[in-house]
């Protein structure tokens, strides 16, 4: 049985990758500022979608957390689905990891703590993920993306997770390289980005939510910039760069560090992100060897 895990992010929190949005969402994302009416609409939609998933989840294990700005989390707590928060970083995790980067064996650590009749080093995999997130490097640093991919490639286990760093306005999502753990994603017409383990929880997406590509990491980081909207003076807003989708599976082609991520479109257009070395084609996701 698949456990419910749902994450929703408003337009001020995360930006979907190129052309995952509907035409209506693209129109909205082109507007740098949300009106009060749009903010209220985002909050209302987030609450409605979270509540619908909450109603479908098991009453004894379901939890929800509204994060503001049209964002929220829903999860069913179990040894294989957990949530944790520390210093403004919220994480949701499904699956089971035996070893984290740096040789941290979570199974052995839990066993040793049990034998010594001591509390475990970490309560669950979500807390291990918080520790792991701290190894990525400082957001916006030149090496943080490469460091994140190197770390992801070292994880041993099956997993799907979503991280929201409210301090650095950063959203990350990932799925194990074998695609064992289910994870879907999509975007609403209002521009809210959604991730979930149960496709029915993402019925608000347009177009229909699609499987998140296995062995990849999504990253969206909103930077604060200033712009002048005509006669109204300078206003501080977030940037409008789309999020990135990156493979953490080692490439088999000489000269490439990581596999390419492709989306095949009808018109064959592509976008190349040179700084992280991957392709995004627009259409249905698949990994290229």
Helix content: 10-25%
The CATH architecture name reads: 4-Layer Sandwich
**CATH class identity:** Alpha Beta
Largest sheet: 7 strands, antiparallel
The rounded Rg comes to 19 Å
Structural class: alpha+beta
Q: Ends: how far apart?
A: 31 Å
Number of domains: 1
In CATH, what is the homologous superfamily?
Answer: Aminohydrolase, N-terminal nucleophile (Ntn) domain
Which fold name is given in CATH as the topology? Glutamine Phosphoribosylpyrophosphate, subunit 1, domain 1
Mean of residue pLDDT? 75
As a percent range, the share of strand residues is: 25-35%
Number of strands: 19
Domain DUF3700: 6-271
InterPro entries: DUF3700, Ntn_hydrolases_N, TSJT1-like
Protein name: DUF3700 domain-containing protein
Provide a descriptive summary of the structure in words.
The chain is of the alpha+beta class and 289 residues long. It has one domain (5-246): Glutamine Phosphoribosylpyrophosphate, subunit 1, domain 1 (4-Layer Sandwich), CATH 3.60.20. The chain is built from 5 helices and 19 strands. It has helices spanning 23-29, 36-56, 106-115, 125-133, 144-154, and strands at residues 5-9, 62-68, 71-76, 81-86, 89-100, 104-105, 156-165, 170-175, 184-187, 193-196, 210-211, 216-221, 224-227, 235-238, 244-247, 260-264, 270-273, 278-281, 284-288. The strands form 5 sheets. Strands 4, 5, 6, 7, 8, 12 and 15 form a 7-stranded antiparallel sheet that branches. Strand 4 and strand 5 form a beta hairpin.
């Amino acid at each position: 049985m698949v456990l419910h895990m749902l994450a929703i992010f408003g337009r001020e929190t995360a930006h979907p990758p190129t052309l995952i949005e509907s035409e209506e969402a693209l129109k909205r994302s082109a507007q740098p500022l949300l009106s009060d009416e749009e903010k209220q609409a985002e909050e209302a939609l987030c609450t409605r979608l979270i509540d619908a998933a909450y109603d479908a989840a098991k009453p004894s294990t379901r939890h929800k957390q509204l994060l503001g700005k049209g964002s929220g989390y829903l999860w069913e707590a179990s040894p294989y689905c957990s949530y944790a928060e520390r210093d403004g970083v919220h994480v949701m995790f499904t699956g089971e990891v035996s070893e984290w980067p740096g040789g941290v064996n979570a199974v052995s650590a839990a066993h040793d703590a049990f034998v010594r009749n001591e509390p475990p080093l970490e309560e669950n995999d979500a807390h291990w993920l918080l520790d792991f997130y701290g190894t990525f490097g400082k957001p916006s640093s030149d090496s943080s993306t490469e460091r994140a991919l190197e770390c992801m490639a070292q994880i041993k286990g099956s997993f799907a997770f979503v991280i929201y760093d409210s301090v650095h306005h950063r959203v990350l999502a990932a799925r194990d390289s074998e695609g064992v753990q289910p994870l879907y994603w999509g975007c609403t017409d209002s521009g809210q980005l959604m991730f979930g383990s149960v496709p029915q929880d993402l019925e608000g997406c347009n177009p229909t939510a699609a499987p998140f590509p296995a062995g990849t990491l999504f990253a969206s980081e909103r930077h604060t910039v200033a712009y002048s909207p005509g006669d109204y003076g300078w206003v501080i807003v977030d940037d409008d760069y789309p999020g990135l989708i990156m493979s953490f599976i080692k490439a088999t082609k000489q000269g490439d560090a990581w596999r390419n991520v492709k989306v095949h479109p009808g018109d064959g257009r592509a976008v190349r992100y040179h700084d992280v070395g991957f392709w995004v084609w627009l259409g249905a996701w698949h990994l290229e060897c």
